[in-house]
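[Automated response] Your request has been received and processed.

Submitted sequence:
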Amino acid sequence: MRRFRRPGPPDAPRVRLNMHIRISPLRVIGPEGEMLGVMARDEALRRAQEYGLDLVEISPTAKPPVCKIMDYGKYKYEQKKKAQQSKAKQHNMQVKEVRLRPKTDTHDIEVKKRKARKFLEEGNKVCFMVIFRGREITHPEIPLAILQDIVQELADVCKVERPPSIEGRRMNMVVAPIKKA
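Generated structure:
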């Protein structure tokens, strides 16, 4: 006979509460944060019922295990809010792409530099891609000079992570933002 697992996140820590706590004795913390002491499981459950709250296992590995009398629904809500706030504060670095051609005019290159500077100041990496058409690939020194000029212009906000290299009909270079102290 096959056993099926319950759906849900596999790495979520299982919190035991009320009757699911099997170990006795327990170190119990009251609803106001005061230490109630070490007591039997049944006594701790009785105290939690007196308050109209749940007995939640906080630290199962401690000797004896630590449990707290609290409102479990409110506890879960606060944990969810903390997780959302920490996720909102994170910045995921993205790789932005700036495409050029060997025949791109100087003014257009200036516009691309400004755009790249904006991306770097936001904390993203920038991949400069020069695309060759036809016989343009026979003169790789032209786009190489363009990319070196771009690196010199943006030297105050970026460092070269991957120097220019030709892959097929494209020349790629990746720059990363400089970490500010």
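Summary generated for your ticket: The two ends are 59 Å apart (CA to CA). The CA atoms of residues 132 and 169 lie 5 Å apart.
If you did not submit this request, please reply to this message.
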